[in-house]
Amino acid sequence: MVALEIFGISIYWYGIFYLLSFVLSYLFLYSLARSNLLDNYGKVKNLLKNNLDDIAFYIILGVLLGGRLGYVIFYNQSIIFNNIWEIFFIWQGGMAFVGGVIGVFLSMLYIKSKYKLSYKDFYFLIDLIVIVVPLGIFFGRIGNFLNQELFGKTIDEIGSSILYQNQELLEAINLIYIYETVDQEKRLNTNFLESFGEGLLLFLIFIVIFWKKLISGKYKVGLISGLFLLLYGIIRFIIEFGRDTTQVNYILGFTSSQYFMIIFIILGFMILFGFDKMEKKF
Q: EC number(s) of the enzyme (predicted)?
């Protein structure tokens, strides 16, 4: 959905929110690098202080290329055959989170090689990046909402007594919403659920845990990454049940995204409960 036009150029809400999330994430890492919180991780701190622009460039590149290609490959292969140039129209929406994760990880591997980071510094840097990932999710889901995409099932399809009994309240806070570009049905606003659950809530949890563990000297490398994969996977897996059937592909009773979330959950457990052994090899 177009937010505004400048000299005939359409600016989409989706692009504005992506830009906002990048700016806020940059400012967060910039401030963190200039605090004393990272004093025990000197190389990472110096890297963020002196080369944050370079790191930000490769991460943004990973997000955009990975997210867009992931969307096309996993969810909308028709773009390749109908209008292949549309792959680059990221401002119109259509980004796959899983693809973005893969893109960022590949970017981080390049950064590790370029700056010759040890494995411990590499995974700690990933933890720092992961802290701000929920900010991108928060604003990205709002962009999805404004684009009138990724909408939820109708309340009649869900048939939950909780929704019916609290319908007036849920409508007041837009958790039940009519997507007018789709139809006139009252639907579960899965965009807002994901924006809060996968975005704002996880960001606040990570900030509190990271700050407390780092201050106490008990922070374990990989903690935030493992928690993210585990918690995001669980939340997204549950919310997927509320997505409209025209918006998802079902395979043996689960959406394709839910299978990715199962992988996330397994990886999260492996990192949280196996990283201590790995850390000894660093």
A: 2.5.1.145
The answer to pTM > 0.70 is yes
Can you tell me which residue has the tokens 């840097």? 125
Token pair of 162 as six digits: 């909780």
Q: Where are the domains of the chain?
A: 2-152+189-279
For the stretch 71-116, pLDDT in tens is: 787 777 777 777 776 777 765 556 788 888 999 999 999 999 999 9
> Residue 180 gets which letter from DSSP?
T
Single out the residue of 148, 136, 145 nearest to residue 67, CA to CA: 136
177: helix, coil or strand?
Answer: strand
Segment 105-149, tens digit of pLDDT: 999 999 999 999 998 899 999 999 999 999 989 988 888 888 888
Asked whether residue 141 is marked as a ligand-binding residue, the answer is: yes
What distance in Å separates the CA atoms of residue 152 and residue 147, rounded to the nearest whole number? 14
* C-alpha of 266 from chain center: 18
**CA separation for the pair 63, 102 (Å, rounded):** 8
